[in-house]
Amino acid sequence: MKYILITILYVLIVSASTFAAVASDNTVIDLEASGPTIKLDYGNTETNPNPAKNFLYFVPLVSPTLVDSSTSQDNSQTARVISFSTKRKGNRFTTVCDFEMAGQGHHTNQYDPISMIDKYSKIKKDKTLKNMLDYIKVEGAGFGSMEITGKTRKDVDVVDQIKVHFNKRDCKSPISIGMYSVKKSDDKFDYDARFDETIVRVNTLIFKRSKNTAKMQVVVASIAGSDEKEGFWSNLKGALANIFIPPVEVDEAGNKAMLDFGLALSQKQQSFTFPKAKNLITETNQIAFKWDKTIADASF
Hints:
By secondary structure, the chain is of the alpha+beta class. Helix content is 26%, strand content 41%.
């Protein structure tokens, strides 16, 4: 019976391997061909809205390191594009699409601290790593807009920039970023010893076409300590920070996907399919990895 069970588990693992692979640090990463497809109805209320996590799939898509995904229980968050307008002047065009996020709950993308610290400790070479990304969370509802600008080159539209605003119609942005700092101790960085944890409320994310390293500009509303409430001082810190915050590196393929998304919106396409986020860790594949370890540890 033991060998039959092991054989069954092995067959399941082989089947699952079509959709998963193991990274160098034994983290299982999804390798399905594409990500979610979202509907772009531009205010047509007859169609069902998208799950908010699908609409914001670009968050793990542009992540330069491994990132996890979790949704609150009984989550009812949805998102839909509710308007479309476009203007052309010469060979330039600007398209603006408003979107609405409705429902309750929260969805969080948590960055893997091991790969995050490993990546930036090699780049910064400092004894203290500051302002490390911990998570990006969308909580509750709100209104936003996507502003797409580009040019027509040889009769083909090319998007050069997409700005994603989350604080339209006098609504507070539902997007927040958790950050932390960590010091090297005993020749290593320990995530459990992190300090200076802060919560940054995000108003706008900006993606641009570039021949150099792909980067994302972040415009913030406030910066507060993890145990502080948002208020005048956190808003002031946010306003001042916008003067000094440099663009952050993002995944090249993810940045291209955002520009492609902008093109789909500017052409008023009815749907858009995101490519698969190569750095997204999935619950299914974590289970597959546990099965794999079970087989590896079994004695025949």
